Structures are given as C-alpha cells and as structure tokens.
Recover the amino acids of this structure.
C-alpha cells in the first residue's frame, strides 16, 4: 500500500527519522554487531587480552552439556506454558463468550494480571509455595505432597510454569475472546439448525475458525516463555535446583554477568537472535497468509 | 446463545468464577499478607487467610523504610516508585513521539533509502533487549549512561511495533485529506499537527497504556544497568527484599508488591478500552 | 475570477518500458465564469485532468494557465482555486466551522473576516445550525454542502468539482444538481466539474468536454454534443438509450456507419423492415428492439415509441423510417463524423 500523494522536501524526512535511526543504530545495530564480533573472540574475565577464536565459542557452546540441557529446559518450559496457557484461556474465553450476563465484569477481572511484572508474579507465587507459611505448600502437604521447589526440580519447573501461565492467561484470553466474537453468528445458527450440539458446534465450526488466532498465540506464547520470563525465574528458582530451571535467557544473563564469560554469553546471544529471527519469520509468514484470506 | 440450556449457562458461570478466583487468589493473599505482621505470617502454618490489623504500619515501612520489629534495616519503596514512574512515562512518550515522526516520514515522503530505513527499523523487532543484554550493556556503559534515566529508558525507546502501528494507521487515513490540506495551504508539519495528530488520539492512548506497563515492569535491563540504589525501579526493589541474606519480611514484601502492581493494574482497568485496542492493534 | 486554459496537456505515468499515457494532448479554453463539465467513462483521464489543474498531479507536458498565470509549478494552495472532493475529504475531528475556516486560518486571514465569510457561506448553503457539529454527525447531503462551503469561503478564481454527487442517493443528487446551478448563477465563478454521469453533464454544463481514453473527443454545448456528436464514442456515450450505430442499414454507403437516435425512428407503414426481438415497457415510453429482416448479422436496432402508438407484438414485423435531418454518418474506420 502506498500513498497517492506525498509531500515534497529533501531534508524534512531525514530530520523526522533521525531520532529513531540514531537509537536503532546505537542501541540495536552496534550491540548486535558487537555480539557477533565477540562471539568469535575470547576475553579473559578481567578485560585483558582478546583473541580471535572463530567458531570456537559456538563449538564450546554446543559441546557444553549444561547449554544443551538449558535448551531442553527451555523447550519443556515453553511447551508447558503455551499448552496450559492456551488451554485455560480458551476455556475461559469460550465461557465468557457464552454468558451474556456479566461478561464485561469477568473480562475486567481476568485481564489485570497482564499489568503485573513477571518478577512480581514470581514473588507472588513464591510466597504461596514457600515453606513453611505458603498456603499452597501447606495444602499440598495436607494431601501428601511434600513440596520443595528448592530441591525437587519437577516442583521448581511446576512453580515457574504456574507463575508464567497465570500472567499470560489475560493476554490469551483477550485474543481468544476477540476471535470468538468475530465469528459470524449466522454460521453458528446454521449449525444449530442442522442439529449440531454445542459441543459439536465448537469442535466443527468454532475451533477451526479460531485456529489462526490459536496459531498466532502459540507463537506469541513461545516468544513470551523464551524471553519475557526472566523475572519469574530470577524471583523464584534462580535457575535451580542445580541448573534445572535455567532457561536460555537466564543462562545468557548468568554466564555473562555472574560468570563473566563474555565470549560465551555473546555466542549465546547470537543463538538467541537466530531463534527470534526464526520465530518472527514464522509469525510473518502466517500474517501474510492471514492477509490473503 | 442459540438455544436455552440453563444447565450449560450455570456451568459457564461456575467455570468463569473459578477462573476469576484462581486469577485473583494470589492478589488476595498478597493484600492479606500486607496487613499482617511479619511474625504472624512466619509463625502460623499456614498463614491466616483473613486480613490483619498491621496494614498502616506495614505500608509505612514499605514506603518509607526503617527498622522493622525483626531488626532488619529496610530502604523504602517511595524513591523507587518515583524512578518507576519516571521510567514508565519517558518510555511511552519517547516511543510515541519518535515512532510517529518516523512513520510520518516513511508514509508521507519519498526519499532515497526509504526502504532501507524501513527495513532497519523492521529488523529491530527481532532484537529484544533480552537477547542482546551483554553487548547493549557495554554500549551503554561506554557512553557513560549507567545509573541514569537516559540509560534506563533510551535503549528501550526505539520500537518497531509502535512505528508499524502508526504506519498502519497513517495508511488508512484517506488520501483526499492530505489533498484537502494541500489545497488549504497546509505544509507537512502543519498537516501533521492539525490533522494527523488529532486523528491518532486513540492509537496514541492505546500505545501509551501498553508501553506504560512495559516501562513500569522492566526488570532485567535495570538489573544490569543500575548499581546505585537511587536508580532502582520498584520491581527490582521487591526482588532485593527477598533476595538478601537477611530474614525476609514477607508483609513488607507483599505491601511493596501491592504498591508495584497498583499503578499498572489501575491503568489497565481504567483504560481497558484503549488497552484492549492497543494490544490487538499492535499485534495485527 | 478567471479563465482556465489547457494547452497541449499531457500526462504520463512511469518511465522507460512501462510508460502509461493517460492524457493525450488536451487543449481547451474555459471562459471566465463558465461552467464546464468533463464527462467520460471511468478511467478516461477526466479526474487526472482535474487533479492536474488543481496541482495534485504533476504535469508531464503542456501548460495550464489560470487567468493569465501559468500555474504548472505552483502549489495547489497558490493557484487560487478550491476543490470539492468526491468523498468530501472533511477533517473528521474538526467541526463544520473549523472545516470551512481551516484554509483561511492558514492564509492568516483576520478572524473577523473568517467569521464573516464562513457565516455568509453557511447562510447560502443553509448550514447555520450545524456549525458546531462534527462531520460524522451530518447526513451525506449536509457533508456535501460543507465541502462546498469550504470551497466558497476561499473566494477562489475557480471551483473544481471531482464527482461531488456520486455518493448521494438519486433524489438528493437531483436536488443538489439544482443547488449547484443556482450557486453558479449567484456567484458566477468559473467551474470545472468532473462526472461519469451524462445526465449530470447535460443538465449542469454550459459546455461539456467528452473524454475517452485520455483523448478529448468533443468540446461543445450540450445541445451540440447531442445533435452533432463528433465521434461514434460521443454518439453512444451521450443519450439514453444510446444512438443506434448501424453498419447494415439498407441504404448505408460501404465504409460508413449510420447513426440514428432511437427517438428519431418512427414506426411507419413502409421503410426499414425489422423483426421485433424484445420490448421494454417503461410507462410513457416504450423501447422496441428489432433485428434487420434482411438478416445481416445480429445488429440490434432500438426504436423509441410512446403510449400514443400501438404496441407491436413480439416476432412481428414492423417498418421504421428515420427522420432525414437526424441522420448522422460516421467514418467506419476512424469513428469520426463525416
């Protein structure tokens, strides 16, 4: 799409884009270039000598079992977050779309966790699962589950998944609700006249029409689990026990700023960038397809 | 719905109520905890689910700091709230200004390298702060911007999403409006100020809500950027309250959490219409 | 007020291999105070022509003068013209008053005078009670009047209208046509009006310019265009139902086309023999569609009859006689009038 009419000026457009370009160059391209550059260097932790090592950082990275484990952890984590988050919010959205009375109130009451910072969400859930005063930990003990996320890595993973899902429900819910509301009523009415039960209508009519939204949210949730959950992990498990909840973003931070392995951290940044690029491309492929409908 | 199925409607309400309860329970517990004393929380197992009577004292400590009954020395959240507020205002305002101007240039002018500029902004979509923390930190450090508002905000200001949002919007503004403005003798900046800006009001409000929350909730970046306690935003302050070696004063932690959640939650609830629009539009 | 002169005007888009010429050397003189309608099918270049006069499209070749000034390189606002857009292009966030006053404010006209001019225009257009409303609170007809008001307050040398009636319903369009005529009588400002609707063109124009594929086919009064069409295109475009353009008329010379309007064919006892193919009963008027009895091709001849005549039966044979002074002859190869 292009405008038919344009203003004419040889200098004004440059002035207008200058601030944004300055920031993009200084804070995006320069660091990204640095990351690429550093990923092929080693530097001793005290900032002394640097040395060109080619792909060695990457070889080291992919030979490093903790890094591969971190990949696996991230995959498990994001899969759990996406599946649980989408399932719960789809259920709630379908219900909210059904009821006429009070759907606005439900909406208001369900969307506010979006406003909670990940790290605060982490603290909130930590508080409930903490020993000894944590309410949920107490209830779990009452039914025979000895909760300890500091020692049991399954417990730790559950904790960060619960906190991450809780925060993301609102976002998914809003998109599902918008998707449901955009399905023409006449389609559902036609199916009802054909004698389809509500359950059958949902799976044969509503769900297929909702699948673009669901796919979009799947990508968004994976991106969220990959990159926006640093605060949750840092507040609750700090990657522990051991490295069992150390997702990729946490590891980049830990290796770069705690372990001071800048070369390794930069190589990890480069890998992360590759992941984001892939996810973005998938997302845009999909958006393009959607436009064609 | 299509047919009357009272049973199903009741079930729907039950599921929704359950959902609301699960979503709201952590908040309820946080508020309750913030009204109790540290000892009440620590010594009863589990903690009481009813509000206590220590609210005033807890919030006073949370806001202004001081020495608690347990003897911990705490710094108050008030200065951190200020840092958060300033950050959360600079980021959306900066973002909106900058992306409106560049979207205006991209849509309404033809200039050399226009496509290159467009793609350079586009690519930044793929570089969230989280994936480039190390190198960005070094850049900011070498510019001497550690522990400053500039360092806290500027690297987060450039955003492709906002530029795209405005570009999308500008493209829907009818061409005839520009032509009418040209017939009326309005130059580009006059057109921007008198026509485009007022027409963008809804988009601006929507973006403001989203970016206010984004700015307020920043954690990883300030964690790297700030070493000076005066520059800690409040979400970082909470983490520090539980992270230390000393005894965790949960009532103060929870009071601080309430203080940290309140502004963005209020913005979401009060500006719900724009918030929803902003979310949906940005992701379009 | 001023005349508008178009001198060998050319518009091309693109360059190199993909040149698309949309205006082919159009020359015309629009007199001071004259109301000229540019009419043609969509894509004929009529809007481009108007937009070139307005300064919204660059001029590839030739010259446009308004008054005695060549305006080729002037900004739209410097040409001392006003334009009414098809979709009105009202500023959605400004009320009626501000919409009309905006151009004057930019031109730094004193506030008192802006007030006076807008009031006067509002009075002419009966918009007085809507001054504080936003465009979305107005009906289509009211918006159209605001768009006209915005043009009037500028007190320009010329008005340019870009299909300003096409978004109105039929009844309102007829009414607004009369309003525009009245307005032109009162203000007497040179006007250039673009439309694809021949009825609008015939009723509004003092002179009309018929365009086809970027070429000006004829420029004349509605009467001339109707009675002496310069080309077969003009003959078929103006008039409803369109003129019969017949290659197989019994007495046609080879290489020519005989033109005769349906209303100039009379049903008579002898003459051209037709077999009745279809009938359309439109109240007072009836259209009889016939085919040549001598079987040459499947050329249709339309005859306009009225309720004073008997209705011919389908598939019967009728005879028609063209009025001799209303026969037109065109060159079959060039389409030009002979």
């Amino acid at each position: 799409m292009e405008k038919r009419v344009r203003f004419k000026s040889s200098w004004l457009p440059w002035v207008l884009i200058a601030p944004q370009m300055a920031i993009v160059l200084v804070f995006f391209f320069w660091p990204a270039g640095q990351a690429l550059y550093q990923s092929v260097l080693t530097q001793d932790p005290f900032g002394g000598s640097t040395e060109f090592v080619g792909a060695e950082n990457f070889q080291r990275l992919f030979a490093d079992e903790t890094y591969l484990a971190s990949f696996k952890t991230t995959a498990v984590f994001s899969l759990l977050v996406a599946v649980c988050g989408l399932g719960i919010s789809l259920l709630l959205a379908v219900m909210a779309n059904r009821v006429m009375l009070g759907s606005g109130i439900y909406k208001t009451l369900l969307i506010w966790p979006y406003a909670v910072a990940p790290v605060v969400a982490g603290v909130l859930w930590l508080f409930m699962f903490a020993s000894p005063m944590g309410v949920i930990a107490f209830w779990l003990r009452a039914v025979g589950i000895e909760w300890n996320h500091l020692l049991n890595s399954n417990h730790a993973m559950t904790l960060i998944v619960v906190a991450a899902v809780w925060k993301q429900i609102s976002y998914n819910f809003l998109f599902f609700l918008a998707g449901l509301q955009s399905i023409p009523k006449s389609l559902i009415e036609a199916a009802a006249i054909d004698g389809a039960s509500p359950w059958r209508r949902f799976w044969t009519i509503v769900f297929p029409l909702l699948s673009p939204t669901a796919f979009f949210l799947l990508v968004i949730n994976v991106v969220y689990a990959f990159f926006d959950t640093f605060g949750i992990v840092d507040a609750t498990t700090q990657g522990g026990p051991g490295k069992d909840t150390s997702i990729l973003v946490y590891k980049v931070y830990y290796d770069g700023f705690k372990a001071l392995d800048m070369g390794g951290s930069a190589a990890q940044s480069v890998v992360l960038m590759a992941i984001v690029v892939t996810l973005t491309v998938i997302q845009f492929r999909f958006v393009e397809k959607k436009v064609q409908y | 719905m299509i047919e009357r199925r009272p049973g199903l409607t009741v079930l729907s309400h039950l599921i929704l109520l359950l959902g609301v309860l699960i979503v709201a329970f952590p908040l309820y517990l946080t508020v309750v905890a913030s009204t109790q004393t540290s000892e009440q929380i620590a010594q009863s197992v589990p903690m009481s689910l009813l509000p206590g009577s220590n609210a005033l004292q807890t919030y006073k400590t949370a806001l202004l700091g001081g020495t608690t009954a347990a003897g911990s020395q705490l710094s108050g959240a008030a200065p951190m709230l200020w840092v958060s507020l300033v950050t959360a205002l600079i980021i959306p305002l900066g973002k909106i200004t900058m992306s409106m101007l560049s979207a205006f240039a991209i849509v309404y002018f033809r200039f050399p390298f226009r496509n290159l500029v467009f793609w350079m902004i586009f690519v930044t979509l793929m570089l969230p702060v989280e994936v480039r923390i190390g190198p960005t930190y070094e850049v900011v450090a070498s510019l001497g911007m550690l522990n400053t508002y500039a360092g806290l905000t500027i690297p987060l200001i450039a955003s492709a999403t906002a530029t795209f949002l405005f570009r999308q919007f500008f493209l829907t503004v009818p061409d005839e409006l520009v032509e009418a403005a040209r017939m009326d003798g309005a130059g580009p900046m006059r057109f921007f100020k008198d026509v485009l800006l007022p027409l963008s009001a809804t988009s601006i409000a929507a973006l403001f809500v989203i970016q206010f929350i984004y700015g307020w909730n920043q954690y990883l970046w300030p964690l790297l950027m700030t070493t000076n306690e005066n520059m800690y935003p409040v979400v970082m302050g909470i983490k520090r309250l539980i992270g230390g070696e000393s005894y965790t004063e949960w009532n103060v932690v929870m009071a601080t959490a309430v203080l940290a959640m309140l502004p963005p939650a209020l913005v979401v609830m009060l500006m719900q219409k724009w918030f929803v629009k902003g979310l949906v539009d940005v992701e379009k | 007020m001023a005349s508008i002169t178009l001198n060998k005007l050319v518009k091309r888009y693109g360059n190199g291999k993909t040149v698309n010429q949309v205006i082919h050397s159009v020359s015309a003189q629009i007199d001071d105070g004259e109301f000229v309608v540019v009419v043609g099918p969509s894509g004929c270049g009529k809007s481009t022509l108007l937009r070139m006069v307005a300064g919204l499209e660059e001029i590839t070749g030739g010259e446009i003068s308004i008054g005695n000034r060549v305006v080729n390189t002037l900004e739209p606002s410097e040409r001392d013209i006003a334009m009414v857009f098809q979709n009105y292009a009202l500023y959605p966030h400004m009320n009626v008053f501000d919409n009309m006053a905006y151009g004057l404010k930019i031109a730094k006209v004193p506030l008192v005078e802006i007030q006076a001019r807008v009031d006067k225009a509002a009075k002419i257009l009966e918009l007085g009670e809507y001054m504080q409303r936003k465009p979305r609170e107005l009906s289509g007809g009211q918006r159209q009047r605001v768009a006209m008001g915005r043009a009037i307050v500028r007190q320009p040398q010329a008005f340019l209208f870009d299909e300003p009636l096409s978004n109105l319903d039929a009844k309102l369009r007829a009414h607004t046509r009369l309003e525009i005529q009245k307005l032109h009588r009162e203000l007497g400002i040179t006007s250039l009006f673009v439309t694809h609707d021949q009825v609008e063109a015939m009723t509004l124009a003092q002179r009309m310019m018929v365009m086809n594929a970027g070429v000006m086919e004829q420029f004349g009064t509605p009467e001339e265009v109707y009675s002496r069409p310069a080309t077969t295109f003009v003959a078929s475009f103006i008039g409803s139902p369109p003129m019969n353009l017949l290659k197989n008329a019994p007495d046609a010379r080879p290489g020519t086309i005989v033109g005769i309007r349906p209303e100039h064919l009379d049903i008579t006892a002898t003459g051209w023999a037709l077999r009745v193919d279809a009938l359309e009963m439109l109240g007072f008027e009836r259209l009889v569609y016939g085919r040549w009895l001598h079987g040459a091709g499947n050329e249709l001849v339309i005859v306009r009859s009225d309720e004073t005549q008997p209705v011919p039966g389908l598939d019967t044979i009728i005879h028609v006689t063209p009025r001799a002074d209303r026969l037109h002859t065109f060159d079959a190869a060039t389409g030009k009038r002979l």
